[in-house]
């Protein structure tokens, strides 16, 4: 990337994070559509942006906004190969989100990036993966990119957190091979379909 592309990427990440501070799910989705259609760092190839119809979403469903219990993890390492220039990304399992969805007990490992500044990451696959959503999974939280507002609410001193799958989104590699994305590990495969958030 040249200097301008690096500056554009900083702006892209700032705007993505800002969208999570908008007052509603609908405003967040509209902001993402604008970014994907107009921003120079959009993962949609430049020649396709003018005709880009917008992202596709499952209908908002309050049943997918739920309370989870966060328990400490064992800190074991997990390496995820992005298959691209980024190579292997190193994480630690720092916790687990336990919750009930569709009358089933579910759990997602919370990963922390090993490296400067850390950052929490919660990718997942579910019963829609490969058919209604991307086969490699979706992201619920990636705090390195500021994608946690709205979809993850924590209270200091409490083990209960609120998660909202209506904010789940596809990684950028869905739209362009120039992006390399860490995908959900097998342990983050949910046993139920999550018909909330971004869809194919």
Overall description:
- The mean pLDDT is 92.
- The strands form two sheets. Strands 2, 3, 4, 5, 6, 7, 8 and 9 form an eight-stranded antiparallel sheet that branches.
- A hairpin with a 5-residue loop joins strand 8 (152-154) and strand 9 (160-164).
- The chain has one domain (57-199).
- Helix content is 16%, strand content 30%.
- Helix 1 packs antiparallel against helix 2.
- The protein contains two helices and ten strands; from the N terminus they run ααββββββββββ.
Tell me how many strands there are.
Answer: 10
Number of helices: 2
The count of domains is: 1
Percentage of residues in DSSP E strands: 25-35%
The biggest beta sheet is recorded as:
8 strands, antiparallel
Unreliable stretches, pLDDT < 50, 5 or more residues?
none
Query: Could you say which structural class the secondary elements and strand pairing correspond to?
Result: alpha+beta
Assembly of the depicted chains: single chain
Supply Rg: 16 Å
Instruction: Report how far apart the termini are.
Output: 29 Å
Helical content (DSSP H or I, runs of 4+): 10-25%
Mean pLDDT: 92
Q: How would you describe the shape?
A: globular
- From N to C, what is the helix and strand string? HHEEEEEEEEEE
Task: Considering the chains and any ligands shown, give keywords for the structure.
single chain; globular; 200 residues; alpha+beta; 2 helices; eight-stranded antiparallel β-sheet; two-stranded antiparallel sheet
